[in-house]
Amino acid sequence: MKICHVDMDAFFAAVEVRDNPELAGKPLIIGALPSERGVVSTCSYEARVYGVRSAMSIKEAYRRCPHGIYMHPNGRKYVEVSRQIHKIWSDFTDVVEYVSLDEGFLDVTGSEHLFGGAAAIGHEIKRRTNEEVGLTCSVGIGYSMMSAKLASEEKKPDGFFEILTPTNLRNLIIDRNVRIIYGVGAKTAEELARIGITTVREIYENSAGVISLLGNHGKQIVELAEGIDPRKVTAEADTKSIGLEHTFQQDITDFNYLKDVLLLTAEKLSFDIRQRGLYSRTITLKVTYKDMKSITRSKSGAFTDKTHDIYKTAAALFDKIEKRAIRLIGITLNNLSDTPDLQLSLFDMEKDTQRGNLDGTLMKLQQKYGRRIIKTADVLRAEQSVSEDD
Q1: What is the reported pLDDT for 154?
Q2: Gyration radius from the chain CA atoms
Q3: 68-107 pLDDT per residue, tens
Q4: What is the rounded CA–CA span in Å between residue 109 and residue 2?
Q5: Tens-digit pLDDT profile for residues 234-276
Q6: Model confidence band, residue 32 (pLDDT cutoffs 50, 70, 90)
Q7: Are 129 and 85 in contact (CB under 8 A)?
Q8: What is the pLDDT of residue 363?
Q9: Which of 151, 184, 219, 321 lies deepest, with the highest CB count within 10 Å?
Q10: pLDDT tens by residue, 95-147
């Protein structure tokens, strides 16, 4: 298998610098303004020198870099640039998994011979991205998804790197922090540190301890550290579905908490499909239990792109499933269309028009200032309940 991982360099900031060369070489922070409540969406590499990073509170960013240039994000412009980038990727393979507007995995196993190999594809993507879009990207070539992802991070910005065998991967990461392993977040790293494991080498030396401590999740960590990653790139052919899942570091039995996770998931998916001008007719709930048994439950109805509708349907499906320890929960939006099939009564049409006007206004604000600029009371409550680093 040959996987290509493409990651744009400081995407939002790079687009703004491209469109206003006077910003080049300056610490540019995209997100909220220093006078507002909010976070950093992304920042230029010049700002990162001062310790500014994505998801940092804007107040902390300003404390570290008071002389920086602060700008609101321009969502509509970034989506359009993303379409140009994705078009380039699609010229090399139809098996593309879009992680975000500026990042994706390409399975070029079946097409690399047409273009002179996977490395040649990576270099051509870099060339075309620079010449046609005016931006740089970092490209990694690997034998798996994790190896390709690590390769793209190795030489950023504007980098190119290959990790072609499990041995290459192990030699590269052996003395690095455990957080380099896919799926190891801050909480998992803390748990591993309690048994004396802070580096990948120590995972190799005490793999039994990792598995004993973390169970199935620990087994996956050990396998990934060894370079074993069976995941496949999942193509979003014609955008037939859009989904989002959350895997917990520890199994969850607090079902009110899980509903809060569903609400935040619905809010993110609603924003994603509205950005794409799509509506969903079928909502699918996915749950994986502690014993790794997975179930899905679906319900179809009227086309919608609303957070409330998505959450209400997913929560109703959740209420009907067996309640026991849960490892993963997610929502997928299926049967997508760019034209909602509205067959409403006059009363419903009036209400829908009112909602549509409000939603349109909210969308414009979110595109200008970022998705998280406006939140409902329910979303605020759910965010207080759900930790950002589960």
Answers
A1: 95
A2: 22
A3: 999 998 888 888 999 899 999 999 998 998 888 899 999 9
A4: 5
A5: 875 445 678 888 888 788 999 988 998 999 899 889 888 887 7
A6: confident
A7: yes
A8: 52
A9: 151
A10: 998 888 899 999 999 999 999 999 999 999 999 999 999 999 999 999 999 99
Return all residues near 179 (Cβ < 8 A) that are at least 6 apart: 185, 186, 189
Q: pTM higher than 0.70, yes or no?
A: no
Which pLDDT value is given to residue 205? 95
Residue 223 among the catalytic residues: no
HEC states along the chain? CCEEEEEECCHHHHHHHHHCHHHCCCCEEEECCCCCCCEEEEECHHHHCCCCCCCCEHHHHHHHCCCCEEECCCHHHHHHHHHHHHHHHHCCCCCEEEEECCEEEEECCCCHHHCCCHHHHHHHHHHHHHHHHCCCEEEEEECCHHHHHHHHHHCCCCCEEEECCHHHHHHHHCCCEHHHCCCCCHHHHHHHHHCCCCEHHHHHHCHHHHHHHHCHHHHHHHHHHCCCCCCCCCCCHHHCEEEEEEEEEEEECCHHHHHHHHHHHHHHHHHHHHHCCCEEEEEEEEEEECCCCEEEEEEEEEEECCHHHHHHHHHHHHHCCCCCCEEEEEEEEEEEECCCCCCCCHHHHHHHHHHHHHHHHHHHHHHHHCHHHCCCHHHHHHHHHCCCCC
* Annotated catalytic residue, options 97, 103, 162, 191: 103
